[in-house]
Amino acid sequence: MVKKRGLGRGLEALLPGGPGDEMREVRVEEIRPNPRQARRQFDEVKLRELAASIEVHGLVQPVVVRPRDGGYELVSGERRWRAYQALGREFIPAVVREMSDEEAAVAVLIENLQREDLNPLEEALAYRQLMDEFGLTQEEVARRVGKSRAAVANALRLLGLPEEVRQLIEEGKLSAGHARALAGVGSEAEAIRLARRAAEEGFSVRDVEEAVRERAGRAKRARKMGADDEELRLAAEEVGRSLGTRVVIRGSRARGKVEISYGSENLLWRVLELLGRAGC
Fold first, then answer.
1. Of 68, 69, 125, 224, which has the most beta carbons under 10 Å away?
2. Angle formed by the axes of helices 188-201 and 163-170, to 10°?
3. Is 209 domain-assigned?
4. Is residue 237 part of a domain?
5. Has 230 been annotated as catalytic?
6. CATH classification of the domain holding 32
7. pLDDT of residue 80
8. What confidence tens digit (pLDDT) does each residue in 24-77 have?
9. What's the number of domains the chain is made of?
10. Cβ(250)–Cβ(256) under 8 Å?
11. Is residue 198 part of a domain?
């Protein structure tokens, strides 16, 4: 039997029947959305479908709210609340619960993670908000939402992607796997170019990973060639000082040519004499 990973203390906030809970009918207009809601986009078609279902079957699960500034702030159930607004309902069944800012923020994130409602960037931004607003470490965030620290760290890396790449992720044109692969590209321009190509040509995650590896290989070879060029340049300068003239090496260690400049007949014969002594 496989033991399921827990979702931390924040999960309790999503379950009715806790200590201090109060079930009541709350005016829809007295509820405002949670400012820490990580989810930015709501599918209008699915919202209409949810509203139609509620119209026929009623609300299966109440929303969870907390008292706030003379009204209520949503903790979970924003889609249900929006559906009630669309139906023009005056009241909605709600669990009213006293919660701290941190408890509410974690509960909102957990609900979205459980339902897989967040795109990769929304998830990363939610982690960052928990860290910045409540001073949590990656390890602490991971414990609260039931993720591994590595999963949280990998998600946060996506926030370093260029804006155009992040837009493609938000639009659903690139997945979390694509995003993680692109996070390994050091050049912003190259990341954008590869992201565009992946979106336009329908690259799989493996395709993007392979393209990133190929680019890294090319960069490594270029760095090595650059180091070789510098060594050859220094060697040419040393020979030039010995000969008293300008020496240029063109090519690589394996193949190329050495150019020796001279400005007089005397210098020409001197160079030839020195080369002859060296057995060239």
1. 125
2. 30
3. no
4. no
5. no
6. 3.90.1530.10
7. 93
8. 999 999 999 988 877 767 778 888 999 999 999 999 889 999 999 899 999 988
9. 1
10. yes
11. no
176 located within any domain: no
CA 33, distance to chain mean position in Å, is 25
Residue 50 domain boundaries: 9-160
SS3 221: helix
Q: pTM higher than 0.85 for the full model?
A: no
Segment 113-158, tens digit of pLDDT: 776 667 888 889 889 988 998 899 999 999 988 889 999 999 999 9
The full DSSP string for 59-127 is -SS-EEEEEETTEEEEEE-HHHHHHHHHHT-SEEEEEE----HHHHHHHHHHHHHHHT-S-HHHHHHHH
Structure tokens at 75: 């903790």
Nearest-angstrom CA–CA distance, 263 and 276 = 19
In the set 25, 44, 49, 78, the catalytic residue is: 78
Strand partners, 26: 92
- Distance CA(238)–CA(185), nearest Å, equals 39
